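To illustrate the input format used throughout this study, we show a single complete record. The first block contains the structure-token representation of the backbone; no residue identities are included at this stage. The design step must infer an amino acid for every position from geometry alone.
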């Protein structure tokens, strides 16, 4: 699927390794922010803030590329 290929490409081009890990744990492994924090050594609040920033940045990249999910 073209959207999945775009998603993978953007994830690897736009995100640092730690950012990819946060996305993977949250959206593919269904961990909550506290659990992610334990794994990566951040507070639950810092995980929340980081994920908000990462997801916002990804949305802007997708919109710029004309890719819409929904």
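Output of the design step:
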């Amino acid at each position: 699927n073209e959207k999945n290929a775009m998603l993978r490409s953007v994830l690897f081009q736009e995100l640092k390794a730690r950012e990819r890990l946060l996305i993977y744990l949250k959206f593919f492994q269904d961990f909550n922010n506290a659990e992610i924090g334990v794994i990566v050594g951040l507070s639950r609040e810092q995980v929340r803030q980081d994920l908000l920033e990462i997801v916002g940045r990804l949305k802007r990249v997708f919109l710029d590329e004309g890719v819409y999910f929904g």
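Structural context for interpreting the output: The chain is about 80% helix and 0% strand. The helical segments are 2-14, 17-28, 33-40, 44-65.
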